[in-house]
Amino acid sequence: MFVSRDSERIATRAEASILHADLDSFYASVEQRDDPRLRGRPVIVGGGVVLAASYEAKAFGVRTPMNGRLARRLCPQAIVVPPRMAAYAEASRKVFEVFRDTTPVVEGISIDEAFLDVRGLRRIAGEPEMIARRLREQVRTEVGLPISVGIARTKFLAKVASAVAKPDGLRLVPAGGELEFLHPLPVERLWGVGEVTARTLHEHGITKVGQLAELGESPLRALLGPGAARHLYALAWARDPRRVETGRRRRSIGAQRALGVRHREPDEIEAYLHGLIDRLGRRLRAADRLSRTVVLRLRFADFARATRSHTLAEATDHTPTLLGAARRLLADAMPLIDDRGLTLIGLSLTNLADADPFQLSLPFEERAENTLDTTLDRLRERFGSAAVTRAALLGRGEGLSVPLLPD
Ligand SMILES: [Mg+2]
Fold first, then answer.
1. 22 is in an annotated binding site
2. Which residues bind Mg(2+) per the record (predicted)?
């Protein structure tokens, strides 16, 4: 895509008025709020895997997600508590009430973070910084939780600013002060710089965002490839044209298949899984969304249910990647299925993001890479969903389709 010099300015708005609000160590903070004995102490939520760690635990190097045994080795004095999802959902609901109380333009990113656009609220609510201060205060008094807020002219910078502000802080990146804020930061602060990319950059003496920006895009391309180079170079110059999206979008898409009580062989169950992921991948691409988390839902002969989920390193609409995650979840659940008998299998794709051309998060690959998926989608569009099916599904049908809301 050709980008003219003129459109390379940092943002279209004149004032830093995008807020990124992010609860600090969310689950652990809820636990510390509800049990005074946990306050000021290292707290780990989860058992086998660390779901959240309080700042006191993070000081010992505990991270999420991390193997629970390793976490306890790093921080033997940590108090480990089981997760209470209902309490977190309730806290999240209250925090989002405060968000929507602040501005009508709220884009929820996950259970504990959102972008808020406060442009145009100056006359009724004051400066963005004042609005942010009030929001933090309100979450503290009404929900009892610490929240960090970043303010900037772009989403990307607002998100970096909230991360820099943590824990329990506020950071404003004033209009015109973007590069001054961004360039001294370590390259790891940029979206898309994981361990591997960071290592490559470090090996070439690039540790700060400013060095990456000065290097220029073509030398960067030689190091990281064209997609990553374009993405990181744009971020290093703080270019990010995305708006705060208010439209109420679905948080997940799902499909399920009732199997009845008859015994099913593992390869048959896996074939149903293929059918479900094919269907969901198609809907995901039709809605121009990407998913990061695959959730497997199971119902057993005794009507008990179980869910298993896997979060990918990056959001994708690539069916084989999603299928890989789903198959691993199924393989892990197989002993349970053998034991209890399976009567329903379901899959959902959650953690959805937009797949628009300005998408600045990973994956870097061109969307044309998904050629097989695109071809299958087109055939189905033209000839109906029964026209193409994977070999494994022949003769089985795709199962009953449940009516669904548009994605
Ligand atoms: Mg958070």
1. yes
2. 22, 112
